Amino acid sequence: MKNPEQIKVSICIPAYKQVDYLRRLLDSLTTQTMKNMEVVITDDSPDQEVEQLVNEYVQALPIRYYRNVPARGMPGNWNTCLDLAKGAYIKIMHDDDWFMHPHSLETLCKALDDHPTHDFAYSAYYNYYLFTGEKKEMTSPGWFRKAFAKAPVNVLFDNLVGPPSVVIHRNKPAYRYDEKVRWTVDVDFYIRLLNAHPGFTYIPEPLCYVGMGKEQITEEVHGVKEVFIPEYFYVLQKMGDGPFRSILVYDFFWRLMRNMKIKGVMDIRNAGYEGPLPLVTNYVLRWQRIFPAGWLKFGPLSKLTMGFSFLFAPKPKA
Protein backbone atom coordinates (compact mmCIF):
# COMPACT_ATOMS: atom_id res chain seq x y z
CA MET A 1 0.00 0.00 0.00
CA LYS A 2 1.32 3.43 -0.95
CA ASN A 3 2.04 6.10 1.60
CA PRO A 4 -1.26 8.04 1.98
CA GLU A 5 0.45 11.29 0.98
CA GLN A 6 1.37 9.72 -2.37
CA ILE A 7 -2.05 8.42 -3.37
CA LYS A 8 -3.53 10.47 -6.19
CA VAL A 9 -7.03 9.01 -6.31
CA SER A 10 -9.23 6.69 -4.29
CA ILE A 11 -11.61 4.51 -6.28
CA CYS A 12 -14.51 4.16 -3.84
CA ILE A 13 -16.78 1.19 -4.54
CA PRO A 14 -19.80 0.75 -2.26
CA ALA A 15 -20.66 -2.87 -3.04
CA TYR A 16 -23.79 -4.92 -2.57
CA LYS A 17 -24.03 -8.53 -3.82
CA GLN A 18 -23.55 -7.96 -7.57
CA VAL A 19 -20.32 -9.92 -7.97
CA ASP A 20 -20.60 -10.38 -11.75
CA TYR A 21 -20.92 -6.64 -12.29
CA LEU A 22 -18.22 -5.91 -9.72
CA ARG A 23 -15.82 -8.26 -11.51
CA ARG A 24 -16.30 -6.25 -14.71
CA LEU A 25 -15.51 -3.02 -12.85
CA LEU A 26 -12.41 -4.49 -11.22
CA ASP A 27 -11.24 -5.84 -14.57
CA SER A 28 -11.55 -2.34 -16.03
CA LEU A 29 -9.46 -1.00 -13.16
CA THR A 30 -6.62 -3.43 -13.87
CA THR A 31 -6.19 -1.86 -17.32
CA GLN A 32 -5.98 1.78 -16.17
CA THR A 33 -2.89 3.76 -17.12
CA MET A 34 -3.26 5.71 -13.86
CA LYS A 35 -1.43 3.54 -11.32
CA ASN A 36 -1.22 5.99 -8.42
CA MET A 37 -4.50 4.88 -6.92
CA GLU A 38 -6.13 2.83 -4.21
CA VAL A 39 -9.35 0.82 -4.42
CA VAL A 40 -11.61 1.02 -1.37
CA ILE A 41 -14.51 -1.44 -1.26
CA THR A 42 -17.14 -1.24 1.47
CA ASP A 43 -19.52 -4.15 1.42
CA ASP A 44 -23.17 -4.17 2.52
CA SER A 45 -23.77 -7.74 1.33
CA PRO A 46 -25.33 -10.35 3.63
CA ASP A 47 -22.85 -13.02 2.50
CA GLN A 48 -19.15 -13.39 1.63
CA GLU A 49 -19.39 -13.46 -2.17
CA VAL A 50 -18.00 -9.95 -2.64
CA GLU A 51 -15.15 -10.59 -0.21
CA GLN A 52 -14.27 -13.82 -2.04
CA LEU A 53 -14.21 -11.96 -5.35
CA VAL A 54 -12.04 -9.18 -3.93
CA ASN A 55 -9.50 -11.77 -2.76
CA GLU A 56 -8.97 -12.72 -6.40
CA TYR A 57 -7.74 -9.17 -7.15
CA VAL A 58 -5.48 -8.37 -4.19
CA GLN A 59 -2.38 -9.06 -6.28
CA ALA A 60 -3.57 -7.06 -9.27
CA LEU A 61 -4.96 -3.99 -7.49
CA PRO A 62 -4.16 -2.01 -4.32
CA ILE A 63 -7.44 -2.98 -2.64
CA ARG A 64 -8.71 -2.31 0.88
CA TYR A 65 -11.89 -4.22 1.72
CA TYR A 66 -14.32 -3.50 4.58
CA ARG A 67 -17.47 -5.37 5.52
CA ASN A 68 -20.23 -3.24 7.06
CA VAL A 69 -21.80 -4.90 10.10
CA PRO A 70 -24.60 -4.04 10.23
CA ALA A 71 -25.20 -2.98 6.64
CA ARG A 72 -25.30 0.79 6.20
CA GLY A 73 -27.67 1.01 3.26
CA MET A 74 -27.57 3.56 0.48
CA PRO A 75 -26.10 6.19 0.73
CA GLY A 76 -24.61 5.34 4.15
CA ASN A 77 -22.39 2.78 2.44
CA TRP A 78 -21.21 5.48 0.04
CA ASN A 79 -20.18 7.73 2.91
CA THR A 80 -18.41 4.89 4.70
CA CYS A 81 -16.34 4.35 1.58
CA LEU A 82 -15.51 8.06 1.28
CA ASP A 83 -14.57 8.23 4.98
CA LEU A 84 -11.95 5.53 4.43
CA ALA A 85 -10.45 7.09 1.30
CA LYS A 86 -6.87 8.37 1.53
CA GLY A 87 -6.40 9.75 -1.97
CA ALA A 88 -6.25 13.42 -2.90
CA TYR A 89 -9.17 12.79 -5.26
CA ILE A 90 -12.27 10.61 -4.87
CA LYS A 91 -13.71 8.66 -7.78
CA ILE A 92 -16.80 6.85 -6.60
CA MET A 93 -17.84 3.93 -8.82
CA HIS A 94 -21.01 1.95 -8.34
CA ASP A 95 -20.50 -1.76 -8.73
CA ASP A 96 -22.57 -2.04 -11.91
CA ASP A 97 -20.61 0.72 -13.69
CA TRP A 98 -17.15 0.46 -15.26
CA PHE A 99 -14.45 2.40 -17.11
CA MET A 100 -14.59 2.46 -20.92
CA HIS A 101 -10.91 3.07 -21.70
CA PRO A 102 -7.51 2.44 -20.09
CA HIS A 103 -7.03 6.23 -19.97
CA SER A 104 -10.42 7.00 -18.36
CA LEU A 105 -9.18 7.43 -14.80
CA GLU A 106 -6.10 9.37 -15.88
CA THR A 107 -8.27 11.76 -17.91
CA LEU A 108 -10.57 12.38 -14.96
CA CYS A 109 -7.65 13.08 -12.63
CA LYS A 110 -6.09 15.42 -15.20
CA ALA A 111 -9.28 17.49 -15.22
CA LEU A 112 -8.64 18.40 -11.57
CA ASP A 113 -4.87 18.59 -11.99
CA ASP A 114 -5.28 21.16 -14.77
CA HIS A 115 -7.88 23.22 -12.87
CA PRO A 116 -6.58 23.60 -9.31
CA THR A 117 -9.38 26.02 -8.40
CA HIS A 118 -12.03 23.41 -9.21
CA ASP A 119 -13.06 20.70 -6.76
CA PHE A 120 -15.45 18.94 -9.14
CA ALA A 121 -15.28 17.44 -12.63
CA TYR A 122 -17.47 15.13 -14.67
CA SER A 123 -17.49 13.51 -18.08
CA ALA A 124 -19.82 12.33 -20.79
CA TYR A 125 -20.71 8.65 -20.54
CA TYR A 126 -22.78 5.84 -21.99
CA ASN A 127 -25.88 4.37 -20.43
CA TYR A 128 -25.54 0.63 -20.92
CA TYR A 129 -28.79 -1.33 -20.69
CA LEU A 130 -27.78 -4.49 -18.88
CA PHE A 131 -30.57 -6.73 -20.20
CA THR A 132 -30.34 -5.75 -23.87
CA GLY A 133 -26.74 -4.61 -24.39
CA GLU A 134 -27.95 -1.35 -25.94
CA LYS A 135 -25.87 1.80 -25.39
CA LYS A 136 -26.87 5.46 -25.36
CA GLU A 137 -24.37 8.31 -25.23
CA MET A 138 -25.13 10.89 -22.55
CA THR A 139 -23.63 14.37 -22.86
CA SER A 140 -23.92 17.62 -20.95
CA PRO A 141 -24.98 20.37 -23.40
CA GLY A 142 -23.53 23.85 -23.32
CA TRP A 143 -26.76 25.56 -22.23
CA PHE A 144 -26.96 23.26 -19.23
CA ARG A 145 -23.32 23.81 -18.22
CA LYS A 146 -23.86 27.57 -18.31
CA ALA A 147 -26.99 27.30 -16.17
CA PHE A 148 -25.30 24.84 -13.80
CA ALA A 149 -22.29 27.15 -13.39
CA LYS A 150 -24.54 30.15 -12.77
CA ALA A 151 -26.62 28.34 -10.13
CA PRO A 152 -25.92 24.69 -9.25
CA VAL A 153 -29.56 24.30 -8.15
CA ASN A 154 -30.48 24.37 -11.85
CA VAL A 155 -29.46 20.70 -11.96
CA LEU A 156 -32.94 20.03 -10.56
CA PHE A 157 -34.40 20.96 -13.97
CA ASP A 158 -32.65 17.93 -15.46
CA ASN A 159 -29.68 16.02 -14.08
CA LEU A 160 -27.44 16.39 -17.10
CA VAL A 161 -24.38 15.79 -14.95
CA GLY A 162 -25.23 12.12 -14.51
CA PRO A 163 -24.79 9.65 -11.65
CA PRO A 164 -21.87 9.77 -9.19
CA SER A 165 -19.87 7.25 -11.25
CA VAL A 166 -19.17 9.96 -13.88
CA VAL A 167 -17.89 12.44 -11.29
CA ILE A 168 -14.51 13.02 -9.64
CA HIS A 169 -13.96 15.44 -6.77
CA ARG A 170 -11.32 16.47 -4.26
CA ASN A 171 -11.23 14.58 -1.01
CA LYS A 172 -12.62 16.92 1.63
CA PRO A 173 -14.53 15.90 4.78
CA ALA A 174 -17.41 18.23 3.93
CA TYR A 175 -18.12 16.41 0.67
CA ARG A 176 -20.48 13.68 1.84
CA TYR A 177 -23.90 12.43 0.76
CA ASP A 178 -27.03 13.32 2.71
CA GLU A 179 -28.24 10.04 4.21
CA LYS A 180 -31.80 11.33 4.57
CA VAL A 181 -32.43 10.97 0.84
CA ARG A 182 -31.99 8.29 -1.82
CA TRP A 183 -33.64 9.35 -5.08
CA THR A 184 -32.23 12.89 -4.93
CA VAL A 185 -28.93 12.00 -3.27
CA ASP A 186 -26.74 12.80 -6.28
CA VAL A 187 -28.27 16.15 -7.28
CA ASP A 188 -28.34 17.23 -3.62
CA PHE A 189 -24.62 16.40 -3.38
CA TYR A 190 -23.74 18.32 -6.55
CA ILE A 191 -25.67 21.39 -5.41
CA ARG A 192 -24.09 21.48 -1.96
CA LEU A 193 -20.53 20.87 -3.20
CA LEU A 194 -20.70 23.53 -5.90
CA ASN A 195 -22.44 26.04 -3.64
CA ALA A 196 -19.56 25.58 -1.19
CA HIS A 197 -16.86 25.69 -3.87
CA PRO A 198 -18.05 27.05 -7.26
CA GLY A 199 -16.48 25.94 -10.51
CA PHE A 200 -16.25 22.63 -12.35
CA THR A 201 -14.63 21.01 -15.37
CA TYR A 202 -16.54 19.06 -17.99
CA ILE A 203 -14.91 16.36 -20.13
CA PRO A 204 -16.85 15.82 -23.39
CA GLU A 205 -15.30 12.41 -24.04
CA PRO A 206 -17.37 9.48 -22.69
CA LEU A 207 -15.21 7.75 -20.09
CA CYS A 208 -17.41 5.14 -18.45
CA TYR A 209 -20.41 2.91 -18.86
CA VAL A 210 -23.31 3.30 -16.45
CA GLY A 211 -25.22 0.07 -16.01
CA MET A 212 -28.98 0.48 -16.33
CA GLY A 213 -31.14 -2.26 -14.82
CA LYS A 214 -34.42 -2.81 -13.00
CA GLU A 215 -32.66 -3.73 -9.77
CA GLN A 216 -31.32 -0.20 -9.37
CA ILE A 217 -32.74 2.02 -6.63
CA THR A 218 -33.58 4.63 -9.28
CA GLU A 219 -35.86 2.13 -11.01
CA GLU A 220 -37.33 0.93 -7.72
CA VAL A 221 -38.63 4.34 -6.67
CA HIS A 222 -39.16 6.05 -10.04
CA GLY A 223 -42.44 7.94 -10.08
CA VAL A 224 -43.43 7.06 -6.49
CA LYS A 225 -45.13 10.11 -4.97
CA GLU A 226 -44.20 9.09 -1.42
CA VAL A 227 -40.53 9.20 -2.47
CA PHE A 228 -40.44 12.14 -4.87
CA ILE A 229 -42.45 14.65 -2.84
CA PRO A 230 -40.69 14.33 0.55
CA GLU A 231 -37.23 14.17 -0.99
CA TYR A 232 -37.51 17.05 -3.45
CA PHE A 233 -39.29 19.30 -0.94
CA TYR A 234 -36.59 18.46 1.63
CA VAL A 235 -33.82 19.38 -0.82
CA LEU A 236 -35.58 22.63 -1.75
CA GLN A 237 -36.25 23.68 1.85
CA LYS A 238 -32.51 23.43 2.61
CA MET A 239 -31.95 26.23 0.08
CA GLY A 240 -34.87 28.51 0.91
CA ASP A 241 -36.88 30.30 -1.76
CA GLY A 242 -33.97 31.90 -3.61
CA PRO A 243 -33.73 29.16 -6.28
CA PHE A 244 -37.23 30.02 -7.53
CA ARG A 245 -35.84 33.16 -9.15
CA SER A 246 -34.61 30.71 -11.83
CA ILE A 247 -37.18 29.72 -14.44
CA LEU A 248 -35.46 26.33 -14.67
CA VAL A 249 -36.14 25.60 -11.00
CA TYR A 250 -39.67 26.96 -11.34
CA ASP A 251 -40.21 24.71 -14.38
CA PHE A 252 -38.94 21.70 -12.42
CA PHE A 253 -41.33 22.48 -9.57
CA TRP A 254 -44.24 22.98 -11.99
CA ARG A 255 -43.58 19.56 -13.56
CA LEU A 256 -43.17 17.90 -10.14
CA MET A 257 -46.61 19.13 -9.04
CA ARG A 258 -48.19 18.17 -12.36
CA ASN A 259 -46.60 14.74 -12.70
CA MET A 260 -47.25 13.74 -9.09
CA LYS A 261 -50.90 14.89 -9.44
CA ILE A 262 -50.64 17.27 -6.49
CA LYS A 263 -53.92 19.21 -6.21
CA GLY A 264 -53.50 20.80 -2.78
CA VAL A 265 -51.29 21.07 0.28
CA MET A 266 -52.91 18.00 1.83
CA ASP A 267 -51.61 15.89 -1.07
CA ILE A 268 -48.10 17.04 -0.17
CA ARG A 269 -48.63 16.22 3.50
CA ASN A 270 -50.21 12.85 2.71
CA ALA A 271 -47.16 11.99 0.61
CA GLY A 272 -45.07 12.32 3.76
CA TYR A 273 -43.57 15.81 3.72
CA GLU A 274 -44.18 17.83 6.90
CA GLY A 275 -41.70 20.69 6.53
CA PRO A 276 -42.03 24.27 5.30
CA LEU A 277 -43.36 24.77 1.77
CA PRO A 278 -41.78 26.87 -0.98
CA LEU A 279 -43.27 30.33 -1.37
CA VAL A 280 -44.65 29.47 -4.82
CA THR A 281 -46.45 26.25 -3.81
CA ASN A 282 -50.02 27.53 -3.55
CA TYR A 283 -49.50 29.89 -6.49
CA VAL A 284 -48.45 27.01 -8.78
CA LEU A 285 -51.31 24.82 -7.56
CA ARG A 286 -53.85 27.57 -8.21
CA TRP A 287 -52.61 27.96 -11.78
CA GLN A 288 -52.68 24.23 -12.45
CA ARG A 289 -56.23 23.89 -11.10
CA ILE A 290 -57.45 26.40 -13.69
CA PHE A 291 -56.72 24.06 -16.60
CA PRO A 292 -57.99 20.56 -17.41
CA ALA A 293 -55.53 17.73 -16.85
CA GLY A 294 -55.38 17.03 -20.59
CA TRP A 295 -54.10 20.58 -21.23
CA LEU A 296 -51.25 20.20 -18.76
CA LYS A 297 -50.33 16.74 -20.08
CA PHE A 298 -49.64 18.26 -23.50
CA GLY A 299 -46.03 19.39 -23.20
CA PRO A 300 -46.03 22.59 -25.32
CA LEU A 301 -49.21 23.92 -23.70
CA SER A 302 -47.97 23.09 -20.21
CA LYS A 303 -44.64 24.79 -20.95
CA LEU A 304 -46.39 27.89 -22.30
CA THR A 305 -48.64 28.08 -19.25
CA MET A 306 -45.70 27.56 -16.92
CA GLY A 307 -43.71 30.35 -18.58
CA PHE A 308 -46.58 32.80 -18.41
CA SER A 309 -47.27 31.99 -14.75
CA PHE A 310 -43.57 32.46 -13.94
CA LEU A 311 -43.78 36.08 -15.08
CA PHE A 312 -46.20 36.89 -12.28
CA ALA A 313 -45.00 34.41 -9.64
CA PRO A 314 -44.11 35.76 -6.18
CA LYS A 315 -40.37 36.36 -6.28
CA PRO A 316 -38.22 35.85 -3.17
CA LYS A 317 -36.01 38.70 -2.10
CA ALA A 318 -32.48 38.58 -3.50
How are the SSEs ordered, and which strands pair?
Layout: E1 9-15, H1 19-30, E2 37-43, H2 49-55, E3 63-67, H3 76-84, E4 89-92, E5 97-99, H4 104-113, E6 120-123, E7 125-129, E8 135-138, H5 142-150, E9 167-170, H6 185-196, E10 201-203, E11 208-212, H7 217-221, H8 225-237, H9 247-259, H10 265-270, H11 281-290, H12 293-297, H13 299-311
Parallel strand pairs: 1-2, 1-4, 2-3, 6-10, 7-11
Antiparallel strand pairs: 4-9, 5-11, 6-9, 7-8
Helix pairs in contact: 9-13
Keywords:
about 40% helix, 13 helices
Strand coverage percent: 15-25%
Query: Roughly how many Å is the radius of gyration?
Result: 21 Å
Number of strands: 11
What's the end-to-end separation, in Å? 51 Å
Q: What best-fitting shape do the alpha-carbon axes yield?
A: elongated
What class would the helix/strand composition place it in? alpha/beta
pLDDT < 50 runs, ≥5 residues: none
Portion in helices: 25-40%
- Average pLDDT number: 93
User: In order across it, which strands form the biggest sheet?
Assistant: 3-2-1-4-9-6-10
Order of helices and strands: EHEHEHEEHEEEHEHEEHHHHHHH
Assembly status: single chain
Main sheet: strands, sense, barrel? 7 strands, mixed
If helices are DSSP runs of H or I spanning 4 or more residues, what is the number of helices? 13
Give an overview of the whole structure.
39% of the residues lie in helices and 16% in strands. It is an alpha/beta fold. The strands form two sheets. It has a seven-stranded mixed beta sheet, with helices on both faces. A four-stranded mixed beta sheet has the order 5-11-7-8.
